[in-house]
Amino acid sequence: MRQTSTRSGALSRSGTNLALASLFVGMFVLGSGELLVVGLLHLIAVDLQVSIPAAGVLVTAYALGLAAGGPVLTALTIKVNKRTILIGAIALVVVLTLIPVLTGSFGLFVAVRAAIGALHGLFVAVGFVLAMSIVPPERMGRAISVVVSGLFVSTALGVPLGTLVGQLLGWRGSFTAVAVLGVVALVATLMLIPSMPSSGGGAASQARYAFAPRVLAALVVNVVAFAAVFSALTYIVPFLQDVTGISGALISLFLLAYGAATATGSFAGGRFADQDAARTLIVGAIGVAASLLVLYLAGSIAVLVALALLTFGLFAMGMVPSMQYRVVSLAGPGGQLASSLPASAANVGIAFGAYAGGVAIGAFTASAAVITGLVIAVVAIPIAWAASFLKPPTTATALTSDPA
């Protein structure tokens, strides 16, 4: 059997695939737990006697925990064995997920969500580093795509199923199910993830490369791209109802199609990242803009709307492996720390996009959020083009000079 050389030892091809599958499962569990609240918000609000807007803080707390806490935890644990970090992160997520199930404190629920968000950010960062280390350099993009696709499969399958469980057994039943899946992910990690001792410098020495101007410039692409996507996506249901004229189960069908497209795009995006990550980001931005343009112009034609949502999901999430690949590559010796930054940048973009789309739809009509996303996507195209000229540091530069 062909052997794959890694920085943490030698894994067989089957061992590599099993390790990547374990990381996929971990991402699936974390993604399901993150987004499950959206589908259960009204049940949580009623049970804990808070308003729905107040319950929405659970979503915000998670996003802030991931965006801010993920890089902090990554920096604090950068010298720890990566397998140990993944095991500890999943174990803590399982325990923290069960706390709201067993208590009735909304304040504690919010704090727990922020903590799980930070652990999610840590898992993403370390998971990507480990995945990229156990495959040959020419397959790094595909390794990233396997891991990140766990998140998008959770969007397509985990969240709808979890919402259904919540409707049958209550929101506590759904969170218990996520904890059980977390135990499965923990066992898989214990059995399948290889040991990966820390390599490279500590957080301080890596930070000068992880936060170099070229890396920050690449992160701008992430922020703007996700802002474009979520300006429209956050308010896609009102668009489908008011403009396309569909309701009920049909809306779920359209969203399922989008979810399936995101999962497919994230898988396929890894191959394109391996070929040319910078070019993939340009093509992805153009594809998102074109999809939103069709969505706006043909918003009243259900078949074309469905096709636009499919291409929207394919292009939007097809960019994600390239975003991660570019940031880690541009960071050079700071790649371990930088691996936590794309997720943080994405959450900043999501927050801005949701806000911008909300302002637009509040001032105008349901189509305004799509137009807002289109405008931001058009802006993203030249930004992605300009960022394509950024180059990783050479070995000599990395060792002898400051990052530029």
Automatic annotation (TrEMBL):
All copies of domain Major facilitator superfamily (MFS) profile, residue ranges: 19-395
Subcellular location: Cell membrane
TM region(s), chain numbering: 20-44, 50-73, 85-102, 108-131, 143-169, 175-194, 215-237, 243-265, 277-295, 341-364, 370-390
Signal sequence range: none
Membrane topology term: Multi-pass membrane protein
A matching Pfam family: MFS_1
Keywords: Cell membrane, Membrane, Transmembrane, Transmembrane helix
Protein name: Major facilitator superfamily MFS_1
Organism of origin: Kribbella flavida (strain DSM 17836 / JCM 10339 / NBRC 14399)
